[in-house]
Amino acid sequence: MKVRGVTIDLSEYMDEDVKNSLIESSLNQMIYNGKTEAIPFANGGKWMFYNKQMLADAGYEEPPKTWDELKKMSQDMMDKKAFASMVLRGGHPRQKV
Questions:
Q1: Residue 50 in contact with residue 44, Cβ under 8 Å?
Q2: 37-60 per-position pLDDT tens digit
Q3: Could you tell me the sign of the dihedral formed by the alpha carbons of 29, 64, 44, 79, in that order?
Q4: What is the pLDDT of residue 97?
Q5: pLDDT of residue 60
Q6: Angle subtended at Cα 29 by Cα 26 and Cα 35, rounded to the nearest 5 degrees
Q7: Degrees (nearest 5) of the Cα angle 54, 68, 56?
Q8: How many CB atoms are located within 10 Å of the residue 91 CB?
Q9: What is the pLDDT of residues 57-74, one digit of tens each?
Q10: CA-based diameter of the chain, in Å?
């Protein structure tokens, strides 16, 4: 869209309160050449499917309840080699969360 000239730089509208109200990975997808070209309006973090045995093998009794817990547990499980993959709806397995 930017290449076709149909977006404008919205960075001036992105104060810390606005940034903190958005999921970082969603916001990062809206940045082109260091400028915010769009603002995400629909984040679909509604469901989570997980492997109970993989969590147990990594020492967890229940799944994460927050994005921060998900990030921490995912890194811990990767470090323990107890993690297969993660896919965010509409995202990429290596997308920064």
A1: no
A2: 887 776 665 677 788 888 898 899
A3: positive
A4: 47
A5: 92
A6: 115
A7: 15
A8: 15
A9: 889 999 998 888 888 998
A10: 50
